[in-house]
TrEMBL record:
<dbReference type="Pfam" id="PF00121">
    <property type="entry name" value="TIM"/>
</dbReference>
<comment type="similarity">
    <text>Belongs to the triosephosphate isomerase family.</text>
</comment>
<comment type="pathway">
    <text>Carbohydrate degradation; glycolysis; D-glyceraldehyde 3-phosphate from glycerone phosphate: step 1/1.</text>
</comment>
<feature type="binding site">
    <location>
        <begin position="9"/>
        <end position="11"/>
    </location>
    <ligand>
        <name>substrate</name>
    </ligand>
</feature>
<dbReference type="GO" id="GO:0019563">
    <property type="term" value="P:glycerol catabolic process"/>
</dbReference>
<comment type="function">
    <text>Involved in the gluconeogenesis. Catalyzes stereospecifically the conversion of dihydroxyacetone phosphate (DHAP) to D-glyceraldehyde-3-phosphate (G3P).</text>
</comment>
<dbReference type="InterPro" id="IPR022896">
    <property type="entry name" value="TrioseP_Isoase_bac/euk"/>
</dbReference>
<feature type="binding site">
    <location>
        <position position="172"/>
    </location>
    <ligand>
        <name>substrate</name>
    </ligand>
</feature>
<feature type="binding site">
    <location>
        <position position="211"/>
    </location>
    <ligand>
        <name>substrate</name>
    </ligand>
</feature>
<dbReference type="InterPro" id="IPR035990">
    <property type="entry name" value="TIM_sf"/>
</dbReference>
<comment type="subunit">
    <text>Homodimer.</text>
</comment>
<dbReference type="InterPro" id="IPR020861">
    <property type="entry name" value="Triosephosphate_isomerase_AS"/>
</dbReference>
<dbReference type="GO" id="GO:0004807">
    <property type="term" value="F:triose-phosphate isomerase activity"/>
</dbReference>
<protein>
    <recommendedName>
        <fullName>Triosephosphate isomerase</fullName>
        <ecNumber>5.3.1.1</ecNumber>
    </recommendedName>
</protein>
<dbReference type="GO" id="GO:0046166">
    <property type="term" value="P:glyceraldehyde-3-phosphate biosynthetic process"/>
</dbReference>
<keyword id="KW-0963">Cytoplasm</keyword>
<keyword id="KW-0324">Glycolysis</keyword>
Amino acid sequence: MPTPLIAGNWKMNGSRSLVESFGQALGDAALPSQLDVALMVPFPYLDAAARALSGSRATLGAQTLSDQASGAYTGEVSGEMLRELGASLVLVGHSERRTLFNEDDAAVLVRVQRALDVGLRPILCLGETLAERDAERSEAVVLGQLDAVLNGLEPDQRQQLVIAYEPVWAIGTGRTASPEQAQAMHAAIRRRLASHAEALAAATPLLYGGSMKADNAAELLAQPDIDGGLIGGASLKIDDFLAICQSAG
Ligand SMILES: O=C[C@H](O)COP(=O)(O)O
């Protein structure tokens, strides 16, 4: 079984002082022994977060990366730069990137490859919209997003992936997927991974994201194919984030 992972995605929120508070609190916290914790902070805070988290078990992640390695791409940030600032994880294909920044499956695959090229572990995000769920297309959509990446990678590259299932209708809405809905999709993802290699299915952490909070985390994390969480809003409040971490132990 993969080690549980609780990753906080601050999105375009937070501050330098919040970074410092989290560093202190995570350093002091008695976290479950079998748990990985990560914080995905905005680019400008990566350097400060690397220092603030150095006394804790939390690892550092970024929220996206450029599809280019370097060059004249004003405003972009490369994977190599993220590595230099201390990130070891990076989100790719978050639904906000897919919908607000037009990142399609091909763009997601390129970013996964860029991340792997420089030794960043990608957290590949998958999820269906409400209209797709209502049309009973959830599984086809999510597995299609997954196939677009798996089929573009070599077997050893697939082993580096973390996968996050985030139904778009549950993100930031307070409406979480039921444990049964989330488990069903996670099981489908696991089966698709197993079609490539049983060892890949067994070792890949599958995170759930979408309105996971302190009061619903335990029930979601108790599902057999849910190995952790990708937490948005609740990752900005240290007590809530720590409570979710405790639920994963
Ligand atoms: O990356 C995190 C997800 O988008 C979930 O966000 P949320 O917990 O605010 O619903």
